[in-house]
Write a structure and sequence with these properties.
It contains 7 helices and 12 strands. By secondary structure, it is α+β, with helices and mostly antiparallel strands. Helix 2 runs parallel beside helix 6. The radius of gyration is 16 Å and the shape is globular.
Length: about 220
């Protein structure tokens, strides 16, 4: 079983950080008709709910933006929180990014809820114990779709002993990326101050339900830190 812990320094520095997680396994073939229908209906829902102007005032979006400014020292208008970036893409009329069924489901739940979601191939992990902590000086992150880069010590990461799998709450690592061969996936919902723990757990439960519905997945119970 995977165990995620939150470093004491992170908890003290930033009360309100939440990580909820579970594992989906025995993944079957996706029901493509249901997936396509869900994508279309969610895009319509998001476009009814927001405009590019109103999105910035949404309390979930606002919470992630405030977290970027205050704790990560990042301008969220230059490096967008993951969920906001997806929502803005949809609002601009750009195509929904189809990657693979697992990622597509994660992205749909992310734009529906505004919550940043991490997905990791369990069989690519080097250890069953992960920790959310500050990046250490000199640590290099290998993001999906980007070049390796040395992280600032302001960064918060989800890491194994010596390998970063996620830059919180923005981007996942190529090392544990899910693909068509993935059979077990670690599902993580990431919360920050201003977003209630209950909402983060509800988002994870929704993600689990959709994984079951569309891929006939079995899921473990949910854990929250």
């Amino acid at each position: 079983m995977i165990v995620i812990s939150v470093d004491k320094g992170i908890s003290e520095l930033c009360p309100g950080i939440t990580v909820a997680y579970a594992i989906a396994y025995n993944l079957g073939h996706v029901d493509e008709i249901k997936l396509s229908s869900l994508i279309e209906s969610t895009i319509e829902e998001v476009r009814r709910r927001y405009t590019l102007e109103s999105l910035r005032s949404d309390p979930i979006v606002r919470a992630y933006r405030d977290f970027y400014w205050r704790y990560l020292k990042i301008d969220p208008t230059k490096i967008r929180p993951a969920a906001e970036a997806l929502i803005r893409r949809v609002l601009r009329g750009r195509p929904f990014p189809r990657i693979n069924p697992i990622v597509d489901i994660g992205n749909i739940i992310s734009i529906k809820t505004g919550v940043c979601i991490g997905l990791y191939d369990v069989d690519k992990l080097l250890t069953s114990r992960l920790v959310l902590r500050r990046a250490r000086k000199g640590e290099v992150f290998y993001p999906i779709g980007g070049r390796p880069r040395e992280l600032s010590e302001n960064s918060i990461v989800l890491a194994e002993d010596s390998r970063i799998i996620h830059e919180f709450p923005h981007r996942d690592s190529i090392h544990t990326a899910v693909d068509e061969s993935t059979k077990r996936v670690l599902l993580v919902t990431c919360g920050v101050p201003g977003i209630g723990k209950k909402y983060i757990i509800e988002t994870l439960e929704l993600l689990k339900r959709i994984m079951k519905l569309l891929m006939n997945a079995e899921c473990t119970e949910s854990f929250v830190r």
